Amino acid sequence: MKLFQPAPEYITALLKQIHNLATVPISIMEVCGTHTMSIFKHGIRSLLPDALKLMSGPGCPVCVTPQSDIERFILAARQKNVIVASFGDLFRVPGNHSSLLKERSQGCDVRVVYSPMDALTLAAETPDRTVIFLAVGFETTAPAVAATIITAQSQNIHNFCILSAHRCVVPALEKLINSPQTAINGFILPGHVSTIIGEIAYDHIPKKYGVGGVIAGFDAGDILYAIYLLITQIMQQNPSIENAYPRAVHAMGNTRAKTLMNEVFSIADAQWRGIGNIPNSGMILNDQYAAFDANNRFDLLIDNSSEPKGCQCGKILMGLISPSECQLFGTICTPETPVGPCMVSSEGTCAAYYRYDDMGLNPVTV
Q1: Secondary element (H or E) of residue 264
Q2: Phi, psi at residue 289, to the nearest 5°?
Q3: CA 226/CA 322 separation, integer angstroms
Q4: Which residue from 49, 60, 211, 357 could staple onto 33, CB 3.0 to 4.6 Å apart?
Q5: Which residues have a Cβ under 8 Å from the Cβ of 350 and sit 6 or more positions away?
């Protein structure tokens, strides 16, 4: 089956409508790392009217993971008889003095896995060692982690545990709206997360804050159509939640996935890199599954952690500055020698700027 590809005339018509509508300054934020990469890949910014500003928000789960959690991951790798299993994006994120990649080079057993179930399989195959899975991600990845925990309990695989750095998207949107530093007129809402939480998760935002959003897919036509819908809302002063990705996102989301998350995780306050504490934005294992929390098995308390000197990832994640405004970007901080996570992750804004040019001058591909 061929993937959907919008016709060139469809792109041209959308751009014409966007230029006709955007007659006053408008600021739109995308809050999905895949959207960020797609916007740069297709050079969408270069085709938009000057009055329209696109901002990249906290849509990269590795990027929003605070330095204290990175330090905790590194400390976990140093424990005796432990294997740390992680997605690859975390390996090169710098801590204050080390990284998971550096720890592995110094003899710690840190391995890349492609799913939490891979980590559970590893635990079953190495019963004399404890496998700690680093559970980083938004609601997209949390259901798979929840299912893995349930499987571990049912199969009595007790040498498996996790460190949860899961985050919930909607509280972050509310934090950004309420911040006096930001001025956001509308959100391009994340496609992958929305397949889980559904349209219903955002329904209160227009009513409570007067800011609308459009759930979007990931090709150029999807994103431009979402921008068109948002501008229409803004110009008509009619904020609402619209689903421009109905082929994947349903109103109620994935009820089975949400049931799994609710069975295993409790909601708690959580720190976000550069943003600070966001109430009810984190997921921790509840009492029923607390035995699978690595914090309860190992001494992983962090006395002190600090952001890398000069790194502006926090401001970039809030859409306050672009990567090119960071004095480290492209000089000290590159994909080969990253200072902050926004340059490391495949979904990071700095990585997108560096890869596709900070002016976003690549042509739209259709």
Answers
A1: helix 255-264
A2: -120, 20
A3: 22
A4: 60
A5: 313, 316, 323, 326, 329, 333, 340, 342, 343
**C-alpha–C-alpha distance, residues 200 and 249, integer Å:** 11
Give the model's pLDDT for residue 302. 85
52: helix, coil or strand? strand
- Give the strands of the sheet with 82-86, arranged side by side: 110-112, 82-86, 130-137, 160-167, 276-285, 265-272
Is the Cα dihedral 85, 89, 91, 95 positive or negative?
Answer: negative
Residues 40, 362 contacting (CB under 8 angstroms): yes
* Torsions phi, psi for 243 (to 5 deg): -110, 105
Paired residues of 297 in beta bridges:
none
Reported as a single tens digit per residue, the pLDDT across 265-313 is 999 999 999 899 999 999 999 999 999 999 999 999 887 778 888 999 9
Q: What does the alpha-carbon distance between residue 312 and residue 92 come to, in Å, rounded to a whole number?
A: 17
pTM: 0.91
8-state DSSP, 252: T
Count of other CB atoms within 10 angstroms of residue 28: 23
> Are the C-beta atoms of residues 143 and 261 closer than 8 Å to each other?
yes
Token look-up 């992680």 returns 86
Write out the E strands in the chain.
26-30, 52-56, 82-86, 110-112, 130-137, 160-167, 186-189, 212-215, 241-243, 265-272, 276-285
What DSSP string runs through 4-52? Answer: P---HHHHHHHHHHHHHH--S-EEEEE--HHHHHHHHHTTGGGGS-TTE
Residues in the chain: 366
Could you give the CA distance from residue 356 to residue 45 in angstroms, rounded to a whole number?
Answer: 12
Q: List the structure tokens of 105.
A: 């080079």
Cα gap 23→39, rounded to integer Å: 22
Angle CA(19)–CA(23)–CA(24) in degrees, nearest 5? 135
Assigned token pair, 24 = 């006053």
Identify the segments of the chain with pLDDT beneath 70.
1-6, 357-366
CA 24 to the chain's CA centroid: 30
Buried b / exposed e along 58-77 (16+ C-beta atoms within 10 A) = bbbbbbbbbbbbbbbbbbbb
- Token readout for 232 is 């229409």
